[in-house]
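Action item from last meeting closed. Structure (289 res):
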C-alpha cells in the first residue's frame, strides 16, 4: 500500500542528485530523467540518501518512541495539530491535500494526524514522512502503510517545489529555506518545540547542571518569525501518569538520559509516577515576497 501511495504521487518527487523529475518503473524503482535510480524497499519506503548517514538514534530508541506514542503520551499535541490544520484549511480546492512531516522519526505522529484529519474532516490527506534515519523509516513503513515514507536529508530533500499544503516539523531541526521551497503558496508550517517544563521530572533527576535545566524558546520563535509569518502559537501543557514500564521507554527515547548513569535511571524509574509535558506549537505561512 505504501508502494501504491508512491505510484500515485510520483509528481511529488525530484531527483536529489540532478533535481529532475522522477518516474516509477515496475512499482519498484524511482528513476529520474538522467537515470539516477532509487529502489523501493520491500516495505515500501525509498532511501534517497546518496551516502549512508550515521545518526544517534537507533532502532531501540525508535521502538520506545513508538510504544510511548501508542500509550497516548503525545495525544493532546496530536489533537492540537489536527485542530490547527482543520482551522487553517477551509476548503481544500485541489482535492488532494499533502502533509509532509520533516523529521518524522518512526512515523507515529504523521500517521495519527492524517488518520484523525480524515475522521474529523472527511478530506483525504496524503501523508509523506521523511527522516534521515533509516531505522526510523523502516519502522514507519512497516507499521503505517497508509503514508509515503522516505529516508532523506532535509538539506536536500527529494521533493519538488510547492507541493505540500502542510509541513510538520515536530521536535526536530528546521530548514526554513527548504520549507519555503516545498510549501504551497497558501500552505502552513507547523513547528513543535519543547517548552520550559517538558519532562521536568526527568531533567531534575538526570541533569544536574543548571544551564541544562532551564532553556528559553526566544531564539526559536525569532528564527521562525524571520522566515515565516507567525499566525499564532499554542502552549500544550499536561501531566501524564506513567508506570515503571512506560517510563523506562520514555527514558530510552529521550536524548537527555543517554549520558545518565544506570543508577540514576533506576532511581528515576522508581521515584517518578507522572511526567509533565509542555510543548509550544508555532504555526505560520509563507512571507509574501
Ligand atoms: Zn537524477
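Sequence:
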Amino acid at each position: 500500500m505504501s508502494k501504491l501511495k508512491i505510484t500515485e504521487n510520483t509528481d511529488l518527487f525530484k531527483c536529489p542528485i540532478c533535481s529532475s523529475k522522477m518516474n516509477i518503473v515496475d512499482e519498484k524503482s524511482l528513476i529520474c530523467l538522467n537515470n539516477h535510480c532509487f529502489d523501493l524497499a520491500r516495505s515500501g519506503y525509498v532511501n534517497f540518501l546518496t551516502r549512508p548517514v550515521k545518526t544517534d538514534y537507533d532502532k531501540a530508541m525508535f521502538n520506545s518512541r513508538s510504544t510511548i506514542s501508542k500509550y497516548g503520551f503525545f495525544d493532546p499535541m496530536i489533537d492540537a495539530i489536527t485542530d490547527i490544520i482543520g482551522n487553517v484549511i477551509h476548503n481544500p480546492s485541489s482535492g488532494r491535500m499533502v502533509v509532509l512531516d520533516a523529521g518524522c522519526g518512526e512515523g507515529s505522529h504523521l500517521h495519527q494526524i492524517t488518520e484523525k484529519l480524515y475522521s474529523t474532516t472527511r478530506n483525504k490527506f496524503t501523508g509523506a514522512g521523511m527522516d534521515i534515519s533509516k531505522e526510523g523509516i523502516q519502522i514507519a513503513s512497516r507499521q503505517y502503510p497508509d503514508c509515503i515514507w522516505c529516508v532523506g536529508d532535509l538539506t536536500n530533500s527529494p521533493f519538488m517545489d510547492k507541493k505540500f499544503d502542510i509541513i510538520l516539523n515536530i521536535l526536530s531541526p528546521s530548514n526554513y529555506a527548504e520549507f519555503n521551497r516545498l510549501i504551497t503558496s497558501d500552505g502552513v508550517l507547523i513547528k513543535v518545540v519543547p517548552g520550559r517544563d517538558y519532562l521536568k521530572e526527568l531533567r531534575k533527576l538526570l541533569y544536574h547542571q543548571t544551564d541544562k535545566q532551564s532553556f528559553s524558546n526566544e531564539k526559536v520563535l525569532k528564527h521562525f518569525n524571520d522566515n515565516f509569518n507567525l499566525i499564532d502559537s499554542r502552549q500544550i501543557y499536561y501531566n501524564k501518569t506513567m508506570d515503571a514500564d512506560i517510563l523506562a521507554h520514555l527514558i530510552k527515547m529521550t536524548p537527555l538520559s543517554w549520558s545518565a548513569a544506570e543508577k540514576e535511571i533506576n532511581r528515576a524509574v522508581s521515584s517518578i509516577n507522572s511526567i509533565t509535558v509542555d510543548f509550544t506549537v508555532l504555526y505560520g505561512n509563507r512571507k509574501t515576497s
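Note appended to the action item: The two ends are 39 Å apart (CA to CA).
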